Amino acid sequence: MTSYASIVSSLHATNGQNQLPIHSSEGIRSWSIPVSFDSTNPKSSPDIDHGVTKAPYERRFSPYEFNGGTTLAIAGIDFCVIAADTRLSSGYEILTRNSSKLHQVTKKCVLASAGCKTDVDQLRSVIDIKMSFYKHNHAKPMTTPSVAQMLSTTLYYKRFFPYYAFNVLGGIDEDGKGCVFSYDAIGSFERTPFSATGSGQAFLIPLMDNVITHRNRLDEKRDLSKEEVVEIVKDAFVTAGERDIYTGDAVEIMVITKDGIETIVFDLKKD
Question: Domains in the chain, ordered, with CATH?
Answer without folding.
Answer: 1-60 (no CATH), 70-267 (3.60.20.10)
